[in-house]
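# step 3/5: fold
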Amino acid sequence: MKKMPKQLRSILLIFILSISVQAVAVAQGNVIDQIVAIVGNNVILKSDIETVYQQRQAQGYTTSGDAKCEILEDLLVEKLLLAQAQNDTTIEATPSQVNRSLDDQMQRFMSNFNSVAELEKYFNKSIVNIKADMETMITNQILTQQMQQKIVTDVAVTPSEVRYFYRNLKEDEKPTVRTQIEFAQVSLIPRVTDEEDLRVKTRLRELKKRIEDGDSFASMAVLYSEGPSARNGGELPNYSGRAELDPAYAAAAFNLKGDRISNVVKSEFGYHIIQTLDRKGEKIRTRHILMKPKVDPEELTKAHTALDSLGVAINEDKISFEDAARRYSHDKNSRNNGGLVINPNSLESKFQLDALEGTESKVLSKMKVGEMSQPFESIDDKGRKVVKIVKLVKRIEAHKANLKEDYKRVSDMFLNKKREEAMNKWIAEEQSKTYISIDESFQNCTFKFDNWIK
């Protein structure tokens, strides 16, 4: 007898599985579920679509099309990506990534409900079961997102391509750029007293001993860490190389052996105890407990007074704002630019006001170009309390994007278009070589991609 082809065996297996699922359901007196699509060796159940539909409704999602057809197509694409991701050893969904996404999803749900009880009533499940149902779905989403990124990672654009793309844009296709500003700053970090430094280091040494004596590192992080990773048990979201971490943090973490916990480490963010969880070549996955020394009110007052005096000197032309920033600012990212602040997301000096820290945004929104502020307190990019004065350097009013002022925005727009085209090409290629079957109840759907129905 000839050996059955692998793809035919897979199809037969899925066919038998679908009959078995429905047979069990009928034997129990009701139809529990239904297979509505098969993609390779993966099935999509009617309950999968209903679950996503219910979750999107809970988040206030609306669409002008057929919501369930859109969900089915999203799941069809996900299954294609998932098959590739599961064969790629460089792609994984870590527990911290899943937990963080799960928490974010639950927060979005709760924004549309008044209480947990109301959410449970809507889903007709306990909060524990809601999270359990979502965990696999979120894991698959993380894997497929990484796979998507890998597919488009080599897509790039050249300046000549960007110019050609822009010249061929219709006027109504050019994006409107909201009002942007450029600003400079002189920022002082108030001194922390030796007593406060000692208090924080002593507390971290106590926590280290408790963990070494058997307490859970993750639990201690949730209870005591002052960093954003606290809710994930102190675990940082990704594997990181040395250049991606604070130098002092990296030096300690890369030198740790096994599951040992570091001594107290001082970084620009505060003080840490660190544990290295895993290593892949020159990248590591870590968790930590971060504690930040509290600023003494007297030191805050001294910083205000120093900036008051500096502001007077600038107004009297005894020193320029730019020289004052170079000589006195504690912010190393801006002081060498004469205080000009660079947007870490775009690497340009332009900011939209709502992208700035709250107090900073409020102060700058009321200023005129060339005006300097009074000293005010703010939180810097390391989460530290600082006192600063700012100068509004430039205001760019809302306008249609152009190459002179908005080259990066236009370049990103074209890059995204090329990435979408690369992704669409990949999907079309995978459709052509993957067995796909869609139940007749969904064959009237209008899909974004052709060739789902063969």
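# step 4/5: annotate
The first strand starts at residue 35 and ends at 39.
# step 5/5: archive (pending)
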